[in-house]
């Protein structure tokens, strides 16, 4: 197991909370993106000394343009008056929702089982939207991806990204005031013969039926999703990989 550094673990978390409180009261997209850009600059800390920083991120002007021009009046009013304050409140609750033993993830070839509260997951997603996580790259975090949506906003001129963002926001629109329940994640490591031994084995294979289309939850029925060694692929960036589809089915 390994620990994931959360925004609430950093010394400037009180400053982050002050920014989130401002976001909860924003009345227009210009003010919102101004505060989000300031919050991004505060949290855009990288362990890589060679990584440049300090430049204005191009994602926030695109987000402002989408809210002002891509949303209809009713959609914009609902977002600024209800969804945005709800997301800011969720993000600010992260420290109170953080597991006692810290937020962990399983390492490669290491089995693990996690049971996370839905309220914690909502808070993590809200913090990803506001880009409060520290900056990650392949050099500093080879097994963890950058969990910030600032780069995603850069592509909001594309209809595909606009659709994904609307789906993301709909999750918070339909979220109750106190989402109950848990989500379980299990990572299994299959042990067995080596590949040459498996290829030369005379033992019969277990019957397997693959079908396309809609599915229903049944015993011994699994949903297959395209995946890679890095789960999620570039879903929070250009979002061109095959992995991106199921991750926006809220």
From TrEMBL:
One of its GO terms (biological process) is carbohydrate metabolic process. GO terms for molecular function: poly(ADP-ribose) glycohydrolase activity. Pfam families: PARG_cat_N. InterPro entries: PARG_helical (IPR048362), Poly_GlycHdrlase (IPR007724). GO terms for cellular component: cytoplasm; nucleus. It comes from the Eukaryota. Residues 73-187 form the PARG helical domain. This is Poly(ADP-ribose) glycohydrolase. The gene is AVEN_149769_1.
């Amino acid at each position: 197991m390994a620990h994931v550094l959360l925004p609430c673990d950093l010394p400037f978390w009180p400053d982050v909370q002050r920014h989130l409180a401002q976001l909860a009261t924003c009345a227009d997209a210009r003010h919102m993106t101004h505060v989000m850009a300031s919050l991004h600059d505060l949290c855009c800390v990288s362990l890589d000394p060679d990584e440049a920083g300090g430049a204005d991120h191009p994602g926030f002007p695109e987000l402002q343009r989408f809210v002002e021009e891509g949303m209809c009046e009713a959609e914009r009013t609902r977002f600024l008056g209800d969804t945005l304050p709800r997301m800011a409140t969720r993000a600010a609750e992260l420290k109170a929702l953080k597991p006692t033993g810290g937020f962990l993830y399983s390492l490669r070839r290491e089995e693990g089982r996690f049971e996370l509260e839905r309220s914690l997951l909502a808070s993590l997603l809200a913090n990803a939207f506001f880009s409060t996580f520290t900056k990650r790259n392949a050099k500093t975090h080879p097994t963890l991806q950058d969990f910030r949506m600032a780069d995603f906003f850069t592509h909001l001129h594309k209809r595909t990204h606009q659709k994904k963002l609307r789906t993301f926001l709909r999750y918070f629109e339909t979220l109750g005031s106190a989402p109950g329940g848990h989500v379980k994640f299990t990572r299994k490591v299959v042990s067995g013969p080596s590949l040459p031994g498996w290829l030369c084995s005379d033992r019969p294979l277990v019957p397997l039926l693959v079908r396309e289309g809609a599915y229903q939850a049944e015993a011994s029925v699994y949903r297959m999703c395209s995946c890679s060694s890095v789960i999620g692929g570039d879903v929070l960036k250009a979002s061109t990989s095959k992995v991106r589809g199921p991750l926006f089915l809220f």
